[in-house]
Amino acid sequence: MTTTLPERQATPPAAPAGGPSRPPASRRRAFTRRRALTIAAFLAPAFVVVAVFTYYPMLSGSLGAFRTWTIYNVAEQPWTGLDNFRGVLTDPLFYGTVGNTIVWVIGSIVPQFVIGFALALWMRRKFRFRGIYQALVFFPWAVSGFLIGVLFRWMFNSEFGVINDLLMRSGIVDSPLPWLATPALAMPAVIIANVWYGVTFFAIMILAALQSVPDELYEASALDGAGKLRSFWHVTVPYIRTTLALTVLLRTIWIFNFPDLIFGMTGGGPGGRTHIVTSYMISITQQGEYGRASALGLIVMLVLAIFAVFYLLATREKKEAYR
Amino acid sequence: MITTQSRVGKTVRIVALGIWLIITLFPLYWIVVTAVKPRRDIYAFPVEYWPQTFSLENFVNLFAVSNFGTYLTNSIIVSVVAATLVTLISLLSGYVIARFEFHAKSAVLMAFLVTQMIPGFIALGPLYQLMVDLGLVNDRTGLVLVYIAMCIPFSTIMLRGFFENVPDALEEAAMIDGCSRLGALFRVLVPIMTPGIVAAFIFNFVSCWNELFLSVTLMTSDANKTVPTALNGFITSYNIDWGSMSAAAVLTIIPTMVLFAFASKYIVQGLTSGAVKG
To answer: Start and end of every ABC transmembrane type-1 domain (chain B) (predicted)?
Structure first.
């Protein structure tokens, strides 16, 4: 990942210490000050906007988690200690959404990874129209998660849905299934939509990793008499292991943060059975329970921070590996 | 022996890739087909895989029953303005991060990366409160500002990657010839990097065009709604009109698909070179 590649040394070279051509101290100081000003000026617009509209709300939200704060008392928000957290943790729906989230993340990421890996292996060898193929299978990324939810809501429609039609034509079911209205079927349906959406990302990331494996390694292992399967396990997998780990971690975070599709497809229903923690949090916010939503948000941030630490540790490992 | 085996392998490969292509494109095909069917054929079971009669009834109806033209205008204005400003701002920040070494650099990068892992919707309530205080609720300017903040981190990281592919000798030469740093950036680097900058613009545009939760929160009056906000309204209504819905979906998807087709190569490059998108 770029952020971890060895940084270029693009700074104007420092004058050799004590050298004969060393400029006077005042000029050097002016130069450093100028340089610092340039850096600050170029970064300032980006930083100010992000600070005001991203960091400030997050910060005040974190404080709001410890206040009584609903849409009805915006003027005055008394401190309440841990009441909001107690509210979240005693809410029976919360535990249901935690379970749903685990099913949603694991149920989505495993098939995405397996299918994505297979596609990447198949796409590795050049074929005619590979560029066009790659652009076509990339299309889901142009569509919002919400709209994808809407498309699949229509395809999974119980009365007029094309998926029921296909299942009945192929004799798998006898009568239409009410997919999104049945608690046991709704989660599999949203997971199918999410797998469809996420496979391409894995395929493209893994394909890029595969293409980074030097051909000489394969040639060497072929000379040593390794078959395809052996060179896959002993050359390919070890070489791209870190990239695989990074991609899986990144996707875990991302799928965890992906209520968009659920909002478009089921809105969390039936009876909260497809609510994941983040979509549940948004629905609490939309009911105007800002304090409780913020408490839940803080819990979510903690979980994400744990994943982020793993992610950053893994990138560091990759950086070391490339040294 | 080896040739037949590899021929079998090749066939398996082509068939598998073909199946995945069909699976990928089918939902798109299906929404387009639904949109051009007359109402009675949409609500038919078993379903029609190829429309017997083509009709633009759904599109006409969409504009008749809702202010879809207004929503489209809002979305276009907000997305174009926000994407333009984001691209400009992150040209500067991406440039500095690519070209300079400074103490706070890793902290700055970390500050940006964190926003990619913690989604913006985590603080919808406080953001709404802030926008109420600033008088920017139901205001396109407010949404533009929020979208700029949303897009800056990824855009910065993406453009930084593109800057790193351009040797710094070019702008150094320009600066020796008397160009200011800003002048060198815009007169020398920007023309070389045009494809990458266009890709970043497109990515930012599509992110704004598709955004739902922030706009649902901030744009509550009908005259200010963007397309995703309006679609959310359609879908939460008691009875979804799938004719208008599919027509609206098609009109929403087409622009982003066209833009992505132009930029997908660069966006793939940006994604795989490690810019995090959350």
So the answer is: 72-263
Instruction: Compute the distance between CA of residue B152 and CA of residue B157 in angstroms, rounded to an integer.
Output: 9
Residue B237 forms contact with A (CB below 8 Å): no
pLDDT above 70 coverage of chain A, percent: 91
Contact between chains at B98 and A11 (C-beta distance less than 8 A) = no
Please check the confidence at residue A166 and state whether its pLDDT lies above 90.
Answer: yes
The pLDDT, as a whole number, for residue A322 is: 55
The CA distances from residue B239 to B67, B124, B156, B242, in Å, are 18, 28, 43, 9
For the domain that residue B83 is a member of, what is the CATH number?
1.10.3720.10
pLDDT, tens digit, for every residue of A253-264?
889 989 999 999
Q: How many residues does chain A have?
A: 323
**Closest chain A residue by Cα to residue B264:** A135
A11 DSSP 8-state letter: S
What CA–CA distance (Å, rounded) separates B112 from B273? 16
Q: Does residue B126 share a domain with residue B24?
A: no
Query: Cβ of A140 and B268 within 8 Å?
Result: no
- To the nearest 5 percent, what fractions of chain A are helix, strand and coil? 70, 0, 25
Contacts of A267 in chain B (CB under 8 A): 235-236
Q: Is B50 a domain residue?
A: no
**Band of the pLDDT at B273, cuts 50, 70, 90?**
low
pLDDT for the residue numbered B258: 87
